[in-house]
Amino acid sequence: MDRERQNGAQAEPSGEEAASSQTRLRELTRNLTERVKELKCLYGISHLFEDEKLTLDEILQGVINFVPPAWQFPEVTCARIKLKNREFVTANFRETAWKQSQDILVNGKRFGSIEVYYLEEMPPSDEGPFLKEERNLIYVIAERLGHTIGRNIAEKNVKFLYHRERELRQKLQQQMRVRVDFTRKLMHELKTPLTSLIAMSQLLNDETRGEKYEKLAKYIWESANNLNNRIEELHDVIRGETGILRLSPKQLKIGELLHSLVEETRPQTQQCGMTMELELEEDLPEAYADPERLRQVMLNLINNACKYAREGGKITIRGTRLEQAIQIEVKDYGPGIPSEIQATLFEPGYQVAYHEERTGGLGIGLALCKTLVELHGGRIWAKSRAGKGSSFYFTVPVKEVKS
Ligand code: ADP
Q1: Atom 1 (ligand 1): residue with closest C-alpha?
Q2: Phi-psi region for residue 143, left (φ > 0), alpha (ψ -120 to 50) or beta?
Q3: What are the structural domains, with CATH classification, of the chain?
Q4: Full-model pTM
Q5: Is 359 in the pocket of ligand 1 (CB under 6 A)?
Q6: 238-278 pLDDT, tens digit each
């Protein structure tokens, strides 16, 4: 009741006051209309940026068309986005003296600009004929354009790299196919005469009497066999590299396999003047491996120990249990591995120059061991010190390794 009386007691506004509040109201309404125009422009532009079906050119043309309606005098406003080698303009575009512009930066570098022109002279405002709010708006539009153009460039780069990678991969696969095909033919060409040579030298060996010729026949047979094994090894390395070497793994008692290997190679090691020791940890679990391929790895390591550590006198083979694998060590007490080839010991072909000079070998035995061990999901490495012998280690999984 008191309040009503008080309100009722308020004096009517004078004519001057009423005029000034009307002007204020008009100004507020005008400001509000301007802000609504800006918001509409930003909203429209956001839609363009989010539309994944539009190309960058369509987005830029769409953006520039949204600009004039957001400025104070749309009917006399035109605009342009100017990039390095192209531009996007409104239908009524013409350069004039009444210009507001903002640089477009992409990754911090100037990439172009966005410009707004009045086609006629307009009353002065905050920045020439332009409002400070219009400066803010052009700044925001330029910033968003910079982001979009940057993202578009990055996407183009990714697409380019993707296609390039696919192209290279296809080329590589084609080359691999040619290489595999060539290797298959080469192996056939080499092995056909070699197989008959082995068979005939075997016959010669069996039939020949007389120490001198018997020795010769044996030598021919051994050399032909050796060559055959080298070719097989090389073939396996190439098949391993091209991913077409397959294993036939199964659960196997590794202790039994090592025992039989020691027996099998005893004559050879004795010939080298060496003895062999087998140390197996008790209750070794079964390994999951291809027995033939495991034999191949072991034979290579034992052969090398015989070949390079003759003066060592002894070869020790150890089998130890690890958490998910069995570790096998082939240890000799020879001269050790030359430090200059240690880093590339398991790489095929790396040591050709070194081997040509000293051992005459191709250096593919250990490369093949690595291929075979890794195909099993295991690891192979060596430890060696000059004069202290060498140890080669590799692991064999106890269960199938899912890749
Ligand atoms: P290859 O025996 O055909 O030359 P490998 O790949 O089997 O090729 O061996 C590579 C090289 O590693 C050998 O030439 C030799 O120099 C060195 N090497 C391998 N095993 C031993 C070893 N037990 N002791 C000393 N050196 C070794």
Answers
A1: 363
A2: alpha
A3: 28-189 (3.30.450.40), 250-397 (3.30.565.10)
A4: 0.61
A5: yes
A6: 888 878 888 999 999 999 999 999 999 998 898 888 999 99
